[in-house]
Amino acid sequence: MSAKAYLYGRKRRPSKGQDGTRAALYLRVSTADQKPDLQYDGLRAYAAHAGLDVVRDYCDVGVSGRREGRPKLNALMAAARNRDIDCVLGWECDCFARSTRHLLAALEEFNHLGVRFVSVQDQVDTDSPMGRAMFTIIGAMAELESSLISERVTAGMRAAETRGKHLGRPVTQQRIVREIETLATSTNLSIRQIQNKIAGRASRGLVGEITKRARDQLAPVALPTSLEQTTHHEQPDDSAATER
Fold first, then answer.
1. One of 2, 15, 30, 226 is an active-site residue; which one?
2. Which of 10, 49, 88, 98 could form a disulfide with 65 if both were Cys (CB 3.0 to 4.6 A apart)?
3. Does residue 30 carry a catalytic annotation?
């Protein structure tokens, strides 16, 4: 079979209501600015050439591939469990999942439900044993790539720290800290009210931390029980000495 025939599938004309032709499209873009038009065009072209009837499409927008709890992906899996679809078409394996564990779990569930999965760009079709093996290998490589990117970012942050560069949230100015401490010790305002008083110039967590520390320092220190008892017993002795 030629590469083009493999990519687009064999041309066939299924009769109306024929089993195994109900296809769902799954698409994902990482940010709201990205458009899934390329994925839509490619997936619909594949479905047309393979004689698949696209019954619904699912597109997650602005969702990381690392997340398993994606709204549209969850809806797609629910449709598969309800036997509403026979085939899932995806653009690339890493658009579907970046975790090998998640990938294998979904593949196993599709296999149990009798749902075919096709990754058009990767030319992987789980109808064949080789396709299932390639699906797993490609998913593992995608996870490896993601891990390598994370390691590079971490190494870059460490290198910046050794050069004295501040990373993360900017340091809160001391005058804001003192303002929070004053409100915490002179009023009974809640943490949310104190944050509103300072016009949100510090996060709620930081306001809570400073408020707790300031109010704990104002709490009266209780005398130890043994010391209180000693003082109580010494009083009669002192009075008796005075009478003598």
1. 30
2. 98
3. yes
